[in-house]
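User: For documentation purposes, I need each entry recorded in a consistent format: the amino acid sequence on its own, followed directly by the corresponding structure tokens. There are two entries in this batch. Please keep commentary to a minimum and don't merge the entries.

Assistant: Recorded as requested. Entry 1:
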Amino acid sequence: MYLPLRRKLIFTALLVLAVFMVSFNIGCEPQPEAEPPGSPEEDTPPIPPEIAEGEDREPVLSVYKHEEDTVEEMNMEEYIAGVVAGEMEPDWPIEALAAQAIIARTFTLQKIAEEGGVPEKDAHASTDIEEFQAYSAEDVTDNVRKAVQSTKGEVACHDDQFIKAWFSAYAGPKTALADEGLGFEEGNPPYIYIVNNPGEEIVPSEEAFWTHSFDEEEVRSAVEEETGEDPGEIEEIEIEEVGPSGRAVTMLVNDTEVSAPDLRLAIGSEEMRSTLIEEEDIEVNEGEVTMGGEGFGHGVGVCQWGAKAMAEDGSSPEDIIDFFYKDIEIVTLWN
């Protein structure tokens, strides 16, 4: 078809304009917005069905109150506030408390997803530190409430699963792998690694170092309990294997080999505060075994004194979690 020159020019201009509009989405339907950072996606772990209240809804938990031997229903964030107040000093920086809230929330959901919570108590969680997490509703302060509210619904995940949210009071100069610090038999999870601990710069010496004398018989009984073998009257204790962060992994009590993390739990984790010990700090003398070392806890995952140091240095709660775990995502499951 023949077109006059003027009409050809108009036609060409309109064609160029149309191509331009398509290329830059001008005049087209608006494109869907990307999910904001931290919002739930299809591949994030679901809230366990036994506590799910619906999409973007805060779960309700049945919590076993061991002091009263009763089960009480409470909103997740109310429970988390009590855990944060029980596990960390409430007057610490809000960012450190908020990091603890993310850890506590993740720990709770992981336990419910994998174990049903505390099924023997017919509950999703417990206030007994021996079977779940510490809990202290009476120590909840405005700072604790602000920390929990600021991270409402936030959890840490790896490979579409809730992480095992381990933490300790003071990890020493370095954090530990799960198999060396905890004796975790399933192997070290990919998100657990060793980092230099910023808490070393601020922790008081009385919190960092410890010494304790045990009755020889209680050590002997603990070894027998863990190994099924009586080591006999204790004459010497040696460190047989040391892990990559410097912690004792296995020990020899006379000739009986025992896991250092297991021995620590058996003789008392408040007394044998860590497995970051040196052989010269172990002494057997006249019916007593004296040990000393550095750190408080197993040293795996988040170090609370490290979180405090990072918070004081201006780090966000999410930055703190990202520092102590690798290759994780922090997502918001409800708000």
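Entry 2:
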Amino acid sequence: MSNSQFLNTASASIAKDTTTYLPVCGSMIARTVQAETERPIRDAGVFSNLFVYLAGNSIDTGNSTINFRINTTNLITVTIAPLATGIFENLSDTGTATNTNYICYQVVTGTGSAGQNIIIKVLGIKFAPTTTTNTVQILAAGGTFNVSEASVTRYLTPVHYLPSAFSTTESGAKYRIREPAPATVTASDFFVYVSANSRTTTTTFRTRKNGNNGAQSVAFPSLESGGLEDTTNTDSLVAGDDFNYSVTTLTGTQALTVHTISCSLISTVDSFVLLKANVAGTGIAFNTTAYAGVAGSLPTFTLSEADTQIYPRFSFTARELGVYVSANGITTNATVVTLRDNGADSTLTVSYAAGETGLKLDSVNTTEITSGIDKIDFKVVTPNTSGNITFTWMGIIGVAIAEPVSASIRRQRILRRGGR
């Protein structure tokens, strides 16, 4: 009952004959240095059910492998034959983490020829913590960004595409907590990884709660780099609280290069967050139907729904659709955001009238996502008028449910037939 889905959806193009690393959540940006993509896992448990979707593969010589990795050990692998695309899963192997480990993906591509690559769109893995009364999620910003402004405070959503700038205003950076009342969710183990730091003054990263400094922070003194973590303090959050991150600089315009900002989010009522975000905003033009995965950074939307979907390997109830729009130049009619369930619209939906911005929530409807059968993603439909609309984040809450025996038998039969 404590399962959660670690999910990363966007796009990573990885050249032939290389070894690179990708985060398990936050941003799908490949790096050649593992430390720049790792996320700390501070709750012991078991990872399983690795899911990969490849939209493209031009590598014609040698297999490619995508490995779920704990510290420096590959534990769960999918193997991709030359030119193969589509869904790849490992439903057999598992990886056990302790509360001192780091996790990421390793991608090793086939030899191929010049110019060949693979294009990864979706990476997902299930996590079941040892403490079965907890449900664990990691909210992470990732990529590469140089902090170089003097004497400012900047803001970002708890999930963020770090090549995009931090925000000068906080309103769009705030993620609205939707934990089932009256339960409390705990944010802990705030972590920041910096690869280089030439600043001559201290730079401080913080959690933020309801527009004020949260309880967690790490500070990088002049020239200090590496990973820093607040393992002492926590933020207690309930439904209606706003949560985000910030960075504060002192004097000087030298650069600090940050790759990861993350924290764990712990629930005791079987709920977990799936959040897709980019505090800089991602726009869609009028008269468009576009799709996005339900978690990870939001650098772009896509016109191909297959590029955004995942089959979770445990059943849960999707609820509390939340969306934040920072700008809306659509001149007439509404823009509609909907959670998709197995290629069809679910009942979870919000609508933005022409020119409307800000936070919209669907706290009424729910939909059940059945293990291994229902694929999920977001759909955005803009009207046939003019202008465009800019999204900062969209997310849902998943609440794990026990799988009925009949559903389990049905799923096993479908999988034996080779279906989904």
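Summary note for entry 2:
The radius of gyration is 20 Å.
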